[in-house]
Design brief:
single chain, alpha/beta, Rossmann fold, 5-stranded parallel sheet, two-stranded parallel sheet, 20 helices, 7 strands
Length: 438
């Protein structure tokens, strides 16, 4: 390396963002993801033994996917090359593959290809990698913020280990920030920096599990604050200026979408109106289609409330119709009213259970309609002995008469078992009364 190359590298290193400077170079300094890189875990063992197979890293931004790939690059005897799926295309893929083939042919050396944001590659681009992943010419490490089972070709998934990266804990983020303040080589250890505990906590709490975001806010505060008596002090007011308004993480096609919907429904089912309204607010802030939300409320009203409060379905359906008429922003009030009603209503999933049991029974049982229940209105029904011996309930006391309505082979089978909840408890008592009628 000549003197100009060295000067360039040093210049880049000095000008690099704090998050880049603080990026760990080995597993000992790597923060978080203990479930996959902790001592004895498969990825840790594979890196240390230099026996890594193709892998997909997926998880939120700032959780260490690229960092871990760079650690692998520093601790492997294989070639290491990178590609960004946002800017790269088929031509770039072919260049990397040619390099890998040549290295394997001439030097018996394999190549690790790290592709950032691999979900941005289309099917053809992903397919171009497949033969070389399959025969071992390249070891693929793909990084994505999206669920790979939705965004990455199943053929690549089946040939790779999939590792989910989780948001970094607030404690770990705080420790990294303190390390950046004290580190004399890569951080601000050579300066007199004081960051108050309140300021640290505010930045951590607004980082949303993203180390890069926290370090960027810390760097902004330090670099833009003037020294007073030889000290740079970051207090709460400065920290507030350095953090941007918290972005609602809600990709309508990603994991956050499905996770939030799940939390929303489970909160209504669990009779927690506060949590249900909170998840509703997240969806509204995230730009979710209000009709989609309203449809989920309707399903919950029937599946989880059912006949414990029949009005719940009425409220939910009316909310959907009102949203069509009113729209947003006023529609948020309508959705909130319906969500709170469903959350606070007595619960029963007896209807949900009944139809599922009946559907299963249809698969394995006789579907023949008993003679006395058959239609006698069509021509020649009487000649064919159809609909005989049917007892008309309105002709009997209490408008009820006991007779077989299910196929004969299913006599005595119960699908609907009303629960002792809300209005359904009255239904239960009525059904118990009918069962006692001779």
């Amino acid at each position: 390396m000549n003197i100009f190359d060295m000067q360039y590298e040093n210049s880049i290193k000095n000008k690099a963002p704090l998050a880049e400077k603080m990026r760990p170079l080995n597993l000992n300094d790597f923060v978080g993801q203990e479930h996959i890189v902790g001592k004895g875990k498969i990825l840790n063992r594979a890196i240390e033994a230099d026996k890594l197979s193709s892998a997909i890293f997926y998880g939120p931004p700032g959780t260490g996917k690229t960092t871990l790939a760079k650690i692998i690059a520093e601790n492997t005897n294989n070639n290491f090359t990178t590609l960004n799926a946002v800017t790269g295309g088929i031509k770039d893929i072919k260049e990397r593959i040619k390099f890998a083939v040549d290295e394997l042919s001439f030097y018996n050396k394999r190549t690790i290809l790290f592709i950032d944001e691999i979900h941005r590659f289309n099917k053809a681009q992903q397919d171009a990698l497949l033969p070389y992943v399959e025969n071992g010419t390249i070891i693929l490490i793909g990084a994505t913020t999206e669920n790979p089972y939705f965004e990455v070709n199943s053929a690549l998934i089946s040939r790779s280990l999939v590792f989910e990266f989780k948001k970094i804990s607030n404690i770990d983020i705080k420790n990294v920030m303190k390390r950046a303040i004290e580190d004399k080589e890569k951080g601000y250890g050579n300066k007199n920096i004081e960051v108050t505990e309140d300021a640290l906590n505010l930045i951590v709490n607004n980082s949303n599990g993203d180390i890069r975001k926290a370090l960027s806010a810390l760097e902004l505060g330090i670099e833009t604050t003037k020294e007073v008596n030889g000290k740079v002090k970051i207090d709460l007011s400065i920290a507030e200026e350095c953090i941007q308004r918290k972005k609602v993480e809600y990709d309508k096609n990603g994991d956050s979408h499905y996770d939030t919907i799940s939390a929303f429904i489970k909160s209504m089912r669990g009779s927690d109106p506060d949590a249900a309204v909170f998840w509703l607010a997240k969806m509204i802030k995230g730009g979710e289609d209000p009709k989609f939300i309203a449809r989920r409320i309707i399903i919950c009203a029937s599946e989880d409330v059912g006949n414990a409060d029949p009005r719940a379905l009425e409220v939910a359906v009316n909310a959907f119709k009102a949203i069509e008429i009113i729209g947003f922003p006023e529609g948020r009030i309508i959705l909130a009213q319906a969500v709170i009603y469903i959350s606070c209503a007595p619960k029963s999933n007896a209807s949900y259970i009944a139809i599922n049991k009946a559907l299963e029974a249809v698969e394995r049982s006789s579907l023949e309609v008993p003679d006395h229940l058959r239609d006698k209105s069509y021509k020649n029904a009487a000649k064919l002995n159809k609909a005989t011996n049917y007892m008309y309930p309105h002709d009997y006391d209490k408008f009820y008469v006991k007779q077989q309505y299910l196929p004969e082979t299913m006599k005595g089978v119960n699908f609907y078992e009303p629960k002792d909840s809300g209005y359904e408890s009255r239904i239960k008592k009525f059904m118990e009364y009918l069962n006692q009628v001779p």
